[in-house]
């Protein structure tokens, strides 16, 4: 999948360069499309470090301003996994709930960010961005069954995984923090790499909280490889 994404991004850059590179004066883009792939990982009670890596994608728009600050809207997808391996001395509980040792989740993070361009040259930008958004997640077990409902049906081999008072939603507020760099060609097309921490306000990305050992909220981190495509241009002053 990542190879296909690379070929698509390369094709977009080549086409854009062919169509626009010959122009003598290029106006500054007012809006720029962001599209690309990602490598994501999770940290929480089933993985204290960002160790399990999976894929993802990112789609966004940058609203370019005249100075160092820009606005940015993003829709990011990550597939997350986590698993806690029990030692030989682990004694499982004798009664419910039985905490899950594994989870998987498809996640979406929609956010609006303010970007500050630390280096703000025409062909290169080094930036930091802070946003606020809404994070969707849905932890599943090994069989793809939802864990959020916390149902007990012993006859069918279904058991509670959390305390009864541990109730949460599929949605949480987030404050994504992004660090990145972008290189722009003369036609205003660009390629970039960034690192993003989603910072969701929840400790239940993995469906584990009270029975966990990692303090604080869970988190998701991604390395994004993006292509920047100009959508609309400012008028050239004559």
Describe the structure in your own words.
With 238 residues, this protein is mainly beta. The chain has one domain: Porin. Helix content is 8%, strand content 45%. The protein has an 8-stranded antiparallel barrel with strand order 1-2-3-4-5-7-8-9. The longest helix has 19 residues. The termini are far apart. InterPro entries: OMP/PagP_B-barrel. It comes from Flammeovirga pectinis. This is Outer membrane protein beta-barrel domain-containing protein.
CATH class value: Mainly Beta
Mean pLDDT: 88
Number of separate strands: 9
Shape: elongated
SSE pattern, N- to C-terminal: HEEEEEEEEE
The Cα radius of gyration reads 22 Å
Number of domains: 1
Largest beta-sheet details? 8 strands, antiparallel, barrel
Helix content: under 10%
* Lateral arrangement of strands in the main beta sheet: 1-2-3-4-5-7-8-9
Our count of helices gives: 1
| Low-confidence parts | 12-23
Distance between the termini: 46 Å
InterPro entries: OMP/PagP_B-barrel
Protein name: Outer membrane protein beta-barrel domain-containing protein
Question: What's the structural blueprint in terms of helices and strands?
Answer:
Blueprint: H1 2-20, E1 29-43, E2 53-63, E3 69-83, E4 102-120, E5 124-136, E6 171-174, E7 177-184, E8 190-197, E9 219-233
Antiparallel strand pairs: 1-2, 1-9, 2-3, 3-4, 4-5, 5-6, 5-7, 7-8, 8-9
InterPro entries: OMP/PagP_B-barrel
Protein name: Outer membrane protein beta-barrel domain-containing protein
Describe the structure concisely for a colleague:
This is Outer membrane protein beta-barrel domain-containing protein. Strand 7 and strand 8 form a beta hairpin. The chain has a single domain, classed as Porin.
């Amino acid at each position: 999948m990542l190879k296909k994404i690379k070929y698509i991004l390369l094709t977009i850059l080549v086409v854009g360069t062919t169509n626009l590179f010959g122009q003598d004066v290029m106006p500054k883009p007012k809006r720029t499309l962001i599209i690309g792939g990602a490598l994501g990982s999770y940290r929480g009670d089933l993985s204290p470090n960002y160790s399990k890596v999976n894929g993802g994608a990112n789609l966004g728009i940058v609203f370019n301003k005249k100075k160092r600050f820009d606005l940015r809207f993003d829709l990011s997808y990550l597939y997350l996994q986590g698993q806690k391996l029990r030692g030989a001395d682990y004694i499982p509980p004798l009664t419910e709930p039985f905490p899950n040792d594994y989870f998987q989740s498809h996640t979406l993070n929609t956010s609006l960010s303010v970007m500050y361009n630390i280096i703000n040259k025409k062909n290169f930008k080094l930036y930091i961005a802070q946003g606020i958004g809404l994070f969707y997640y849905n932890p599943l077990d090994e069989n793809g069954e939802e864990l959020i409902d916390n149902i007990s049906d012993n006859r069918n081999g279904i058991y509670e995984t959390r305390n009864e008072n541990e109730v949460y939603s599929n949605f949480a507020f987030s404050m994504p923090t992004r660090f990145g760099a972008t290189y722009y060609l003369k036609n205003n097309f660009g390629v970039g790499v960034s690192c993003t921490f989603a910072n969701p306000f929840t400790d239940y990305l993995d469906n584990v909280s009270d029975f966990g050992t990692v303090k604080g909220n869970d988190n998701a981190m991604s390395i994004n490889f993006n292509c920047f495509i100009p959508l609309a241009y400012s008028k050239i002053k004559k």
